[in-house]
Structure formats: structure tokens, C-alpha cells
Amino acid sequence: MQENLTLRYGCNPHQAEATVFMRDGTLPITVLNGTPGYINLLDALNSWQLVRELRTTLGLPAAASFKHVSPAGTAVGIPMSDATAAAHFVNKEGLSPLATAYARARGADRLSSFGDWAALSDIVDVPTARLIRREVSDGVIAPGFEPEALAILRKKKGGAYRIVQIDAEYEPPAIETRDVFGITFSQERNRSIPRPPDLVDVVTANKDISDDAKRDMIIALISLKYTQSNSVCYVYDGQLIGVGAGQQSRIHCTRLAGDKADNWMLRHHPRVQSLPFRDKIRRAERDNGIDQYLLDGLTAVEEAHWLQSFTHPPVRLSRAEKREWLDGFNGVVLGSDAFFPFRDSVDRASQSGVQYIVQPGGSVRDDVVIEACDAYGMGMVLTGTRLFHH
Predict the structure, then answer these.
(1) Catalytic residue among 68, 92, 252, 322
(2) Which residues have C-beta within 8 Å of that of residue 133, sequence separation ≥ 6?
(3) 270-316 fold
(4) Is 68 tagged catalytic?
(5) Residue 14 annotated among the catalytic residues of the structure
(6) Using the 8-state DSSP alphabet, how is residue 182 labeled?
(7) How many CA atoms lie within 13 A of 147 on its CB side?
(8) What is the DSSP letter of 337?
(9) How far is 46 from 159, CA to CA, in rounded Å?
(10) Which residue of 145, 239, 269, 276 could cross-link 75, Cys pair, CB 3.0 to 4.6 Å?
(11) What does the pLDDT look like over 178-190, one tens digit per residue?
(12) Does domain 4-171 have CATH number 2.40.30.10?
């Protein structure tokens, strides 16, 4: 452990002077490989808190894929279906629970996860290290690494992959500060951790909130706690499948997250999973190819470039076929870091298989939002706790 750590640079390369340090004591992190930057460590410390709280609350290994101080994906280590494994480009045989959590987190939004920071709740094992090694990623934080797993990761990025070990027992002070424009802000750290007992205020006619839905609500709330606000996310089968972060309008968050969730669902379609990619196409190129396959209205130039990835032109899914496939999903959880001011987010959520909603409540139009949920047969829980994060 050390008292301070010199970074490559700050938010941008021209901000050359950058350091992290403790005002009292030593840093709870140790750099095992590479040289982290300012944004790397912001991602590392936020993502570590997220996976630690998921592990503590749900008792399952947890993983997060972070980009620009918000999660692109989070998940817990429960078994995957064959279709989900194929959508995530993994062979689920031989995966540990931690590796499964990482595969799910990385697979939530593979376009956004390109060049991510990974966070793992448990000591990194070999199956997890092997998955990380093959992805384009900036670094990883975990409470420890098996020797063989550490050796695998140290070879990544030509030996420059950033590996950070954190003291799992470290607890920060109750008060946190930050400087903006030479002015210091101080506040009590957000120590509220969403837990199943928080999910008791079911305000809709549908009171049946399944255990799986409660688990996914906790994943949603803890993910939102570490997502730049405004934020909304969709969670399904133990993993985040779409997040809308940092939007000024909540409906824009809901639409953005819903579009990502729809793409995740469509990646499970047999037509998508059998696209005729050329041999030796890299995963990132496959991700871009799938994304463009699911888009409507490519220009002629875009279409010509896109077709170069395939042995022959694939038959596109029609809008009707997409709608039919999406209508086959249900049981999705929608979470929001603050109240819904209008029913529009509920209407959008209904198009992406949402059956459950969790949010703080407190809007003057809560009754209108509840009425919308009842119209769709959704169950909604109000927690009373806002989870803004800036």
C-alpha cells in the first residue's frame, strides 16, 4: 500500500499533472500491472462499490463493465441459457460463477463495453481471466487474483494491461469531498444499500412480485446508484440489459435504455445467431455487424461497407418479425433512480417486456403512473429512496 499514486494524466492528455492520494493513511489499492489513468480509477472505484454491494446483498458473485463512470453492464453469476451464451460470444461450459457474471456483464451492451473497465466481486479465477484476456478492455479491479489468472492478465495489451487489487475490507469515511472550480463540496457518502426488505411498498393492483423480480430489482437499484443521473435501466434474468445514463429527460433515459434492451433481446434471435460472417472476423466487428443488421435505413454506402463482413447478404428481419420476437419476452424489470413525472416511461417500457417497475415515487403524478402500470398489468414497487449520482 502507498500514500499516493501518480497517474498517466488527468481526464485528458493535456492535463498532465494527476495524482490520487489519501489525506490520512495509505491507499486501499495496489497496482499490480500497468499504469492507470484518472478516468480508469474513477471507473475502478465506482464499479468496485457496485459489485461489492451486489455481492453483499444477493450473496452471488457479481461483475460490472464500466465506461465513462457508468455501467454498460452488470450481472450476477447465475447460469445462462444456450441462446444467451451465444449472444454473448461465450461457451458456457467450464465457466465459473464469477466468469458467468463477467460474461453476462460484458454481453449486456457489447458496443458500449468496447474498451471498458471490468470489476469483479471475488478473487479472479482462471476462467474469468481467460474471458477478459480476449476482450478489448482497459483494466480490471478485484479483491485478488489467482496466480495463474494474474499471469494471464499480465500478458494482455502487450504487458500494459492495468490490474488493480483493492482491499476488500476497506471502508471510506462517512463524509466525502470534491473540488469544483477551486471550491470544495462536502456531503455524507451515500451509504444506503438497496436490499430486499426495501421492496415492500407495492402500489399497483398486481401485488405478485416474484423472487426473481426482486433479485433483478436489487440489481437495477444498485446499478443505478453508480450510474450518472438521470438514469433508467432494464434488468432481465440476473443482468442489466439496457441503461440510459446522464440524460436530462427521464423519458429519453427510458427510450435509450429500452432500445439497448431490445437489441439485447434481438441478439437471441436465431436469424441473428446464424448470420453468415466471414471467417476470422473479430468479435468487435461482429458486434458492429449485428448492430447494423438490426438498424433500419442504412445508406447505400453504409450498406456496401456492412456487407463486406458476410460471405453472402443476410436476409434482414422485418419490423413485424422484430416485434413478434420482442413480444415473446416478459418478466423484465425497469428501474429508475428518481420518480417518473409522467406515464410516458411506462408506455415505452411496455414495448420491451417490462412486467415490473421499481422507483422511489414521490411525483405529484404518482397516481397517473400507477394507473398506467395497472393498464398493462405491471407490478410496481416504490422505495422512497432517490439514487442520484453525479
Answers:
(1) 68
(2) 152, 153, 155, 156
(3) Helix Hairpins (1.10.287)
(4) yes
(5) no
(6) T
(7) 0
(8) S
(9) 25
(10) 239
(11) 999 999 999 999 9
(12) no
Residue 1 has pLDDT above 70, yes or no: no
Instruction: Over range 200-218, report the average pLDDT.
Output: 96
- Residue 52 is placed in which grid cell? 461489492
Active site residue 260: no
- Identify the active-site residue in 40, 230, 263, 288: 230
DSSP label of 202 = B
Supply the DSSP string of 61-90, one letter for each residue.
-EEEEEETTEEEEEEE--PPPHHHHHHTT-
Cα separation, 321 vs 109, whole angstroms: 22
In this structure, what C-alpha cell is assigned to residue 118?
471490468
Work out the burial of residue 177: count CB atoms within 10 Å of its CB; fewer than 13 is exposed, 13-18 middle, 19 or more buried: exposed
Partner residues linked to 166 by β-bridges: 29
Chain Cα centroid distance, residue 244: 10
> From the centroid of its chain, how far is CA 13?
27
**207-210, long-range: CB < 8 A, 24+ apart:** 207/379, 208/379, 209/356, 209/379, 209/381, 210/331
Are the beta carbons of 41 and 146 closer than 8 angstroms?
A: no
CA 240 – CA 353 distance, rounded (Å): 14
Cβ neighbours around 26 below 10 Å, total: 13
> How far apart (Å, rounded) are the C-alpha atoms in residues 281 and 331?
34
Catalytic residue among 33, 46, 67, 156: 67
What's domain 192-266+325-382's superfamily in CATH?
Answer: AICAR transformylase, duplication domain (3.40.140.20)
Closest CA to 379 of 217, 221, 197, 192: 217
Would you kindly state where each structural domain of the chain is located, as residue ranges?
Answer: 4-171, 192-266+325-382, 270-316
Query: What confidence category does residue 261 fall into, taking pLDDT thresholds of 50, 70 and 90?
Result: very high
Known active-site residue 268: no
Buried b (16+ CB within 10 A) or exposed e, 34-64: bebbbbbbbbbbbbbbbbbbbbebbebbbbb
Q: How far apart are CA 305 and CA 194, in angstroms?
A: 46
Q: Which residues pair with 239 in a beta bridge?
A: 75, 236
Closest CA to 18 of 33, 35, 1, 30: 35
SS3 93: coil
Q: Is the N-terminal amide bond of 230 cis, ω within 30° of 0?
A: yes
Please check whether the two domains, 4-171 and 270-316, share a CATH topology: no
| Residues 6 or more apart in contact with residue 146 via CB below 8 angstroms | 123, 124, 125, 126, 129
Cβ–Cβ < 8 Å for 162, 137: no
